[in-house]
Predict the 3D structure of the following.
Amino acid sequence: YLPTGPELAQSAQLIDISGEKMKLLLDFPTAGEPHYAQAIPANLIEPKSLKFHRLAESTHPEGVKSEAETGIRREGKQV
């Protein structure tokens, strides 16, 4: 390796470059390397992904169409 950067791509190194020469301040291993990654088809993830829906298009019986329709309702000890 040339003395121009971090020693290992998978290590976490804190390097001070403020002086004339680089100075290694901290060096420790990090978990996970890219060659251990796995790929799966997007259609397995998409149905379970977080989705955003417009309030005005809500069909839920207790749904609200705007912030003005929100509030706190108390019935006995239930809120």
